[in-house]
Each structure stands twice: as C-alpha cells, then as structure tokens.
Amino acid sequence: MPRPDGRTADQLRPVTFTRGWAEHAEGSALVEFGRTRVICTASVTEGVPRWRKGSGLGWVTAEYAMLPRSTNTRSDRESVKGKIGGRTHEISRLIGRSLRAVIDEKALGENTVVLDCDVLQADGGTRTAAITGAYVALADAVSWLKERKLVKGEPLRGTVSAVSVGIIAGEPRLDLCYEEDVAAETDMNVVMTGDGRFVEVQGTAEGAPFDRAELDALLELAAGGCTQLGVLQLEALGR
Amino acid sequence: MPRPDGRTADQLRPVTFTRGWAEHAEGSALVEFGRTRVICTASVTEGVPRWRKGSGLGWVTAEYAMLPRSTNTRSDRESVKGKIGGRTHEISRLIGRSLRAVIDEKALGENTVVLDCDVLQADGGTRTAAITGAYVALADAVSWLKERKLVKGEPLRGTVSAVSVGIIAGEPRLDLCYEEDVAAETDMNVVMTGDGRFVEVQGTAEGAPFDRAELDALLELAAGGCTQLGVLQLEALGR
Amino acid sequence: MPRPDGRTADQLRPVTFTRGWAEHAEGSALVEFGRTRVICTASVTEGVPRWRKGSGLGWVTAEYAMLPRSTNTRSDRESVKGKIGGRTHEISRLIGRSLRAVIDEKALGENTVVLDCDVLQADGGTRTAAITGAYVALADAVSWLKERKLVKGEPLRGTVSAVSVGIIAGEPRLDLCYEEDVAAETDMNVVMTGDGRFVEVQGTAEGAPFDRAELDALLELAAGGCTQLGVLQLEALGR
Amino acid sequence: MPRPDGRTADQLRPVTFTRGWAEHAEGSALVEFGRTRVICTASVTEGVPRWRKGSGLGWVTAEYAMLPRSTNTRSDRESVKGKIGGRTHEISRLIGRSLRAVIDEKALGENTVVLDCDVLQADGGTRTAAITGAYVALADAVSWLKERKLVKGEPLRGTVSAVSVGIIAGEPRLDLCYEEDVAAETDMNVVMTGDGRFVEVQGTAEGAPFDRAELDALLELAAGGCTQLGVLQLEALGR
Amino acid sequence: MPRPDGRTADQLRPVTFTRGWAEHAEGSALVEFGRTRVICTASVTEGVPRWRKGSGLGWVTAEYAMLPRSTNTRSDRESVKGKIGGRTHEISRLIGRSLRAVIDEKALGENTVVLDCDVLQADGGTRTAAITGAYVALADAVSWLKERKLVKGEPLRGTVSAVSVGIIAGEPRLDLCYEEDVAAETDMNVVMTGDGRFVEVQGTAEGAPFDRAELDALLELAAGGCTQLGVLQLEALGR
Amino acid sequence: MPRPDGRTADQLRPVTFTRGWAEHAEGSALVEFGRTRVICTASVTEGVPRWRKGSGLGWVTAEYAMLPRSTNTRSDRESVKGKIGGRTHEISRLIGRSLRAVIDEKALGENTVVLDCDVLQADGGTRTAAITGAYVALADAVSWLKERKLVKGEPLRGTVSAVSVGIIAGEPRLDLCYEEDVAAETDMNVVMTGDGRFVEVQGTAEGAPFDRAELDALLELAAGGCTQLGVLQLEALGR
C-alpha cells in the first residue's frame, strides 16, 4: 500500500501557517497539514484561575473541538449533547500540557492564555496540527504581551511541535492522513521541543502489540518530523 | 455619527461567498459580510427524523454557533458549559425556518439537510450572514442530490437572504457592523425571498419604542438589501 | 372558515386579570385570554446581578414555562429533561425585553424584579398573554416598592401589552386561538406601548411568504388590539 | 403557642376540590388546604413504559413541582438549574407509590396515567395535599377510561388520602400550616386508604428524637384526619 | 417461607465494623450486615457551607452511592448518566438527617463532616447499614477533632443506628436480606438513638396496605434490633 | 531522595490480588499495589452495543472512578457534579483499549464484558493497578463464559499488565507511589503483554522535557516490571 498522496515514508504533508487569521485574538494561526485545517487562537486575560492566585505564576490552557462537518460524516455537536466526550477532553489536556512545557510560568506572571483549537477540516493528525499551530498563536500572544510590557523577561522557552507516526502494512510512516490512520497497526503521537527532547510520547497498538524495534523506528521518524516543523514554525514567525 | 467604514446608509458591506470551502460537505460556503465570516455547511442524509417518517416529506434544519474567540472577548464554549444559551437556540431556529421557506419538502422527499453555521469571526449581522450563506450551501447540496437522482423535481423554490437594519442617531441604516449594532436604538432582522416577499420580520426597540414611520423606513431599506443579496447569491452559484 | 368562537376578525377574546392571585408575590396576576390562562408573578429582590452592580440601575427579567398538561397532549417537564428548550428560552427573553421597554432602570435603582409567567392552560397566544399579564404584576410590584419608599421617582414609563395576529384563509385576524394559530399562513406577535409605539414585531411566514400589503394589514390589526389591552390593563389596576 | 388560624389541634384546614380545573386533562382537580393550593392533572396514554410492555398491567406515576413564587421567597426553577433536587424526587416518588396502592394494575390494563401535581401556592402540607388532590384527578381519569370502555372491571380499589401531623411545643397537631411546620419538633406524613389502613408512614425528628408515646399520638391524629379527607374526596366526586 | 439464612424472625445478620479501613479519612468503617458491605468515610474540613457561615454551628452531611456491580445486575453509573437518581438523593438525605440527630452542632463549631457511604456489595438493607456504619466513622472523626482540640465539649450526643423490618408471608421479620426485601408486603426502615427513641420511621406498603397492629409489631422488632446495633457500635469503638 | 518505603529503584511494591471479592460479578479482583487498592469487577452480558450488532464480534469496555475519599483530600463526586472529568474519561478509555489488546473478539462472540475499576484507596499508580487487576477479573469472567459454553475457542490471547515509571531526582524508578509521582520530572505509564510487547506507552514531561536516553531507561524499567506482574497475575489465577 503506497501513500495515498505519493509521499515518501518520512515526508510531511505540505504545512502552512496563516498568522492573524482571527483578527480579534491576541495571537492566531490557521494551520494546515495537507487537507487538515485547524484555526488556533490565543486569548490573553489578566489574572489567573482562583487556585493559582497570588502565586506570581501564569497559566496556559487549551480547548480543542471539531466543527460538526469537519469530518466525512457529520457529528452531533457536543454543546447540543450537553457534554464533552472523552476524546475531546483527552486532546484538550494534551495540547495544554504540550504548550506549558515551553512556558516559563514565572516570566508570564499572573496572566492567562487560553488556546482554542477548532478543527475546520479533518484529514488525520488534527491533534498534532493543533499543537503545532497553537504554538504559533501562543508566540504571537506572548509578543503582544511583551509589546505592552505586561510581562518581564521571556515567557517562551523555545518551540514545541507535534507529529503523528504509525506503522502501515509493516512500514513506519510520518504524518498520517486519515486513510492511513485508519489502516495503522500502531499509532503514535509525539510532541517535541525544538532542541529535540520529548514532551509527550503516546503510542497505541491498534492491532497487534508492537515490539521495541518498531517503537524505536517510530521515535526516529517522529524526531525527524518535529525538527522540520520547528523550522517551519520559526519561519512563519519571521525569525 | 458617520458609518465607521464610510458606507452610505443604504450600502451593504462587501459580500463574498467561497463555495466548497469545506470539502467533506455536500454543500458549503464561507460567507463574508465585511469582517463577519461564517462557514456554512450542508450535510445530507437519507431519511428523516422519526416524527416525519413515512410522510414522504423531507426536512431541513440548522444549527448556529460561534467560535469562542470569534468575538472581541473570548466566550466560554457552550459544550463546556453543558448547555446551549437562549440566543444560540433562537438563531438556530430562525435559520432553519428561513431556509424551509424556500424548500418544497415534497420534492425533497425523505431526505434531511442539516445546515451548520459556525461563526469564525463576528462583526455584527452574524445571523443574517448565516442565513444568506446557508442558502448557497443548501443550493449546492440540492444540486448534489439532483446529480445523484436522489430527488425528483426541484426542491428549491427560489432564493432566500437576510439582512439587518437599524436606526442609529435617528438615521435608518442597512447592514449594521458591530459598532453600529451596539449603538442602534432599533434593530431589525429581515428575511426575504428573491421575489421580494417576507419570510421573517423581527424588529426590537433597544432604546425607545419606534413608530410606524420608522418601521416603514427600515422595511424599505431591508427590501433593497435583500434584493442585492439575492443577485449576489445567484452570481456565486453561477446562474 | 369562520372563527371557532364566532368573533369578528378584529375582536379580542374575553380578557380578564385577577390581581393578587399569588399571595406571596410582591405583584401577581392571573391573566385569561379566553381559555388561555397564565399566572404571572413579580418577585422583588434588593440588589442586581453581579455584572450590573454599582451601576445604580435596576434589572427586570422574565421566565416563561408551561405546565406539562396545560396543552392538549402532555409534554415532558424541562426540569426532568435537564434542559430548557429553544422555544422557552426565546419566549422568556421576549417577555423580559418587552417589560424593560417601559422601565426606567435609573428610577428603579439597584433592585431586581423577576417576572415568572407559568402557563396553566394554553389555547394560543400564551406569550402575548404572558406579556400583557406580566405588566399588571410588574405594576403592582412597582407600587409595592413605592409604598415602602424603596425607589425614588417613577420606574414605570407607561403600559405595554402584546397580541398575536395572523392570516387565516386570506383573512387577517386578531388574537388567534390555538385552532387558528395552527391554520395560519402568517403569524405575527406584536408588542406595543400604551401610546401606540412598537417594542417588538415578530412576523413569520408559516406557509407562503407574505407581501408588504399583508404585513401592513396585520400591523394595523395588532395596533387596534394593543390599544384595547392597554385600556383593560389600566382598568384592572384601578386607574 | 396557639394555632395561627385558631384551629383546634385535631382540626383540618378548610379543604376544597375544584374538579375539571384543567380542561385539557382526562382528570384534574385544584385542591386547596387553607392557603396551600395544588393543581393536580391526570394524563392518560395508551400503552405502558418499555419495561412493562406485554405484562397486561397498567402503570401510574407522578411528578411534583413547585412554581418559583409559590413560596414566600422565590426559588430558582429546576429546569433552569438543569437538574431536579432531592426533595422534588422524593415527593414525586411518594405520590406515585401512594396512588399505586389503590390501583388494580391488572384492571387498568396496559394504560399509563401520569399525575402532575404543581404547587401554585405553598403554606405547608404540599405533598399531602398533592396526594389527596391527585386521587380525585385519578378517579376522574379512571371514569374517563371506563366511559370509553378502555378498561375492563374497576381499576380503583378505594380512596387514598394524606395528611401531615406534628408536635409543636409538646402538642400533637393535625394538618400543619407552614408556620407550624417550621416550628415542629417532629413532623410526620401519613398516607392512608379510606378503610383506615396505612400506605406510608414517614416520621422525622426535626429536633429531639421522639418516643413511642408521641409516635402513637401522631398516628391517632393522622388516622382521624385521613378519615375526614376520604369523606371529602367522595363528596367532591359526587358519590 | 423460612428465612434464607436460617435466622429467627427477630435475629440480625452477623454485623461487623472494620475501623480505619480507608487510611486517608479522619474516620472510616467498613460495615458488613451479612453480605451487605458498605464503606463509610468521614471527611472533616474546617469551615461550613456559605449559608451557615458566622453561625458558630457545625454541619454534617452525607452522600450515598452504589458501585455499578454491587448488585446482581450491573447498573449504569450516575456520573455517566449525568444525574443522580431519586433513590440516591432520598437515601443521602436520610443518612444526613439521621446523623445530625446525634450531633450537637454548637459543640462541633464551624467544622463540616461529610459522610460518604459507598455500597461495595448489596444484599438488602444498604441504607440502614450505611447509617449504622457512618455513625462509627463519625465517632472516629469526632475523636480526631477532639484530639487536635479543634472542638470544645462533646459534639456527639449518643449513638444512632438503623435497621430494616418487614412483613413476609404475614410474619414480621428483622433485618431483611435482598431476597426477603423483594418478597415483603410491607417494608420499614427505622432509625433510633441508643436510648431507644425514634429519629426516623419510614414504612411503606409494597403490596396491600398495613393495619395498626402490623405497624406496632414492626416498630417493636426494630426497637430490639437497634438496641443490639447500639451495643455493637460501642464495642467496635472500644467503649 | 531515597524511596519513601525503602525499595530499590527497580522494585515493585507488594502486589496482591483477591479474586472473587465482589460476589455478584462474573469475575472480580481486589488488587493492591502497596496502599493503592482498586476493586475490579467484570460484568458479562449477552449481546453487544447497537453499532456492533450482527458482526459476530464481542466487546470489552471499562469504566474507572475514584471514591470521594480514596485520596488525601476529599473530591466531589462526578455524579453530583453531573459530568465526568477529563482524567476519568482518559483513564477509562486507556483501560478499555489495554484489555481489548488481549481479547480475540471473534472468539468472544456477541457478548459484552464491562470492567468497572473503582479506586477504594489511592497512593499513586491507580490506572496501572486498575489495568493489572482488571485483567484478572476479565480472565475469571472468560472462564465463567467458557464453563457455560457461551463462547467457542479461547477469547483470551494472553496476559496484559501495566506499571508506572518515572524519573525522580535524575533516577529512573519503577512503580511510583503518590509522593514520588508528585515529585517526578517525567512520568510514564506502560502497558505490556505477557510476551513483552507494548500495548500503550504514555510518557509525559512534568518538568523539563526528557531525552532519548531517559526514555530508553524508563522503557527498560517498565518492561521488567510488567514481566513480574504477568507472573503474579498467572499465579493469582492458579496457572
């Protein structure tokens, strides 16, 4: 089974960032990984949640959602169902943790940044695209804070990005599209900093369990992908 | 108080429709009224809700929502709050009724079309933009059904569009942006068919009650705006 | 199709107000429009919601609901379902806006009045009966505040009432009962002040869209009905 | 402390039943125990809940609620809060059990009767008034079924009524009003059949625990009250 | 029908208390009535709910729940269903009231004790076992408070315990197991203090209504059971 | 920082399984990892969820929850809050996926097994203890099915267990207790089959991101722990 879009096994889909797509937000980016399209906005508010007040530390959190028809078949809205599903919860928490890994909460001071990642169109890898795009929105929100001298020092410790990898028909592949994601025996999401260290590693055997050699191959592939994404993020930010 | 963007009192904002923006949907349009930006998708499914089964009639319904940071200040997600607010309910119902006004439910047969209108960016007039854009998405979904011979005859009876009007500092104005909407003494949303008849008229005195002459002036202005929107819809659909 | 109760097209049903029906409330009225029966209570509390504190302005809001067996077929309770439906939300908001139109929030001072309108028996026009009856309850609650010198000046700017109108078999009719409401091609609810100005106009094409002449005829009919209702309200209040 | 309304310790408040108050229901009664006022409606539907289908047995259930301003201080609506409180649940279940005690479910056949008991005005004893009034509504609904020959035989086995008793300042009293209810050291609700047997006994020490002699005195008083209520019910039903 | 476990009609099942079963809690007891097994924990926090602040009085409350597979057939979790059922509400309230009957709220001072009673295995009488076990957990929590000198005087006024009784095949029996509970014509839960007074009496006719003689027999039986339970509680507490 | 309980870095806490602890369930085990105590029950029902009907395949799912006072500070019940938190959702999904990895759904046939994992006492590693204990309950439920000839062939493909590992003060450690979990810079949960392959790998940088060497050390440690757990599981099952 060759890749549906003719990529090599270690090749990313075309990745683009459109900064400032949401004009009201302090930072925003429309991120595209091939046909996967996520709008990420960063909303800054003064102050922190009650449990953190007086600590001098800032707070970064995230919420992920999919538009009902971002997928091939329409899904019911979670607002209409009256509750958030497990998958949504899980991904929102992952995005929040990933971004906090590159935030110096002391330098951020008692400010809160909420990252909203809304999937407009889904073709696999929406959570990793969301993390990668949310970083760009966050970087712009931090610049916004710095321009207004609302923070001292540098709240951003570096870049963070994420990519999915998986084994399809025995072959480890980078950045799976939906068709590959469904066919994968093993599926892994890896979040890494720009200097090549791991923030999150989440590997799941969808079919048969995987052995250590397969795990190593996937980690290798992911590390290469995240390095490229880090470069693209910095380019998009004009650095 | 002149108009913030220099328009004349009876001038629409630049209106554009980007068809096919959501590739998975049977019909879709990204509609823009100035800075207001709404993605409208039409999802077709075979069959109708239980209460309509066996009637031979189709069903068209709509759901409206705003992204948390589509507005100047971030709003909490209704999915997180666990319930849909009154305003969201009200607008979803209005969009559904408006589109059903141009649907021949018999010709549609036992098929359902759900229109999802998600506001990506808000600058006033989101409900009227949603109706106007949803019509384009619906028209494409109906074409999709006709191409596949899933309907007999013509389910669409004509076009439908909507516009807001209001009185600001005593002057009746067409297609209010957010700044004007907030300042309006009277605010009216009008939904009309392409042949100049009314589907919905919803006028509200925000400040002092309005008299019959003011009501007449607003209806006149709205009729002009809807006529222009109907032409733009047909152009966008290539007719 | 003649009117089911033999009325002329521009005739109201018998309208009665029983003041003080709910002995615990600061103001209350059982309002009847024919067989439609709504208990309206006005509850006064010192203080205003958080977002209005310190403004010096009062607040008036409303909640509408129907008893499960107020209708021909029993409906499930919204408390049991765990959420409020769109129609309930919409009507509650309409009643609140309508009454605020005749309230001088400055004169009311930082007091809150909640109007509860519970439909005991429904035969069409429940929302318009609710507005009309809630005004009477509100007027009594304002008197209660004035007697206790809890407000300065006059918080009430005048009367407000509402009526439904519609076109049945081509004929514009005033104050529709349920049977007519179901049969109406066009249905309009109009809220007006005692001096003949409009607070809300909500017209909906249930069948074919309506033209300007039909709209004008309905507005005319509604204006006549509201004038009569204003007189009846003042009589009930002994003024 | 004498009784606020001058009654003797074993005297009921004036009790009235207004049958047919809710015109849409198959049976209904507005019941008043002094200032406590509850509208009870009985709604008949063919068929039974899923878990009882095919059993040949009928089903009777009840829902209790209070209007927001039935009490001295306004309560938030349970529909707005999005959930039903423990007290409401408890009372609804009590009413349902009480009425099922006099129903022959076999004779009722696969029909369902839902009793809705909505407290319009509360002055103590709302749950016991609800049971007593619901019986009258139920009896009329059963007559409705019998007239239409929808049941065979007699689904009603006899009457059922309820009353509250309590100890105030050491004195056992019948049918407590709100002021007494609040002051009671011990509070008991007793549900009895017309032939003097017990369906429910619910006694609670609000202050100090009570001894067996006190319990016996309360049971005696309740038995007397229920006997009187049974007579009043039959009178109201014209038997 | 003899008793399934060969007991005499007035005999309790083997009752055991394992104190300190939950090591994190200020007081805890695993209580067993035969195969019925409930873990009761007492959680102490400084302060009281908002509505009680500044009163100088403490607060004791309880929550009851069943593990999904504590019963013969698995039940859905109330957390998954999103709401608490009427039975759970009712029992939680009963446990709270029962324990408050032996608490001197003044001596407790502004401290709160929450009793959590989670049924690990159910074989009838879970609510009465919960009350009986919660008393032991509460007594340990009160000792914990006294050791830390967080209360003055003695917050505990005495013991409280509960037992179920019922009439099976005409015979009054003590402490029903599940099989008997299901077969009972009349079912009663009685909560009593160690000195033989009543806190709660809740009797329900499951089949035919019961007469005064049956009620007296059940009260007698329950009084005997509670006396024994009070002794066992004190033994468990080493007093 | 030495280990609080004096273990070596690669040593498990004492692990015990008490089979049959919940007598009603088809399979059950009380699993203890030191002071962490989880009751795991397996409930078998004939049939599968609607979306799987007719496939011939079985279904295994899991629900995880914590008793309110299983932790050092009492948590509010999710049933009372009316919704399940993100962490609960995430862990329930993880347990379900882990157990499905060793189930042959074809051999299971159209039967459903629900694993309920309720944490009675928490001292770190509750999710890994839950997976490890749930396997034992599942194995007993499968035996129950086989004894009754309700399945053909062998639905269990092998054992599965899980353990937490983490880096504390630079040292990789196996099976963290709560005190260590809080102090860990990196935290990883690893789920493995008895033959040493991976089902899930979830590593999270709590403090600084981790490098590849640290990741390798943790994977090594986890593999050793899971091997031991697999042996203990088989011993407990008497194989």
From TrEMBL, chains A, B, C, D, E, F:
InterPro entries reported in the protein's UniProt record: ExoRNase_PH_dom1, ExoRNase_PH_dom2, ExoRNase_PH_dom2_sf, PNPase/RNase_PH_dom_sf, Ribosomal_Su5_D2-typ_SF, RNase_PH, RNase_PH_bac-type, RNase_PH_CS
Tagged with keyword Nucleotide-binding: no
EC number(s) in its UniProt entry? 2.7.7.56
- Cite the GO molecular-function annotations of the record: tRNA nucleotidyltransferase activity
Q: Which branch of life, at top level?
A: Bacteria
Which key words are in the record? Answer: Nucleotidyltransferase, RNA-binding, rRNA processing, Transferase, tRNA processing, tRNA-binding
Pfam families (UniProt xref): RNase_PH, RNase_PH_C
What are the residue boundaries of the Exoribonuclease phosphorolytic domain, all occurrences included? 11-141, 159-223
Task: Specify whether Lyase is a keyword of the entry.
Answer: no
State where phosphate binds.
R87, G125, T126, R127
Quote the catalytic activity from the record. Answer: tRNA(n+1) + phosphate = tRNA(n) + a ribonucleoside 5'-diphosphate
Return the HAMAP family for the record.
Answer: RNase_PH
The record's listing under PANTHER family reads: EXOSOME COMPLEX COMPONENT, EXOSOME COMPLEX COMPONENT RRP41
Annotated family: Belongs to the RNase PH family.
Q: What is this protein called?
A: Ribonuclease PH
Organism listed in the record? Motilibacter deserti
Query: Which gene holds the coding sequence for this protein?
Result: rph
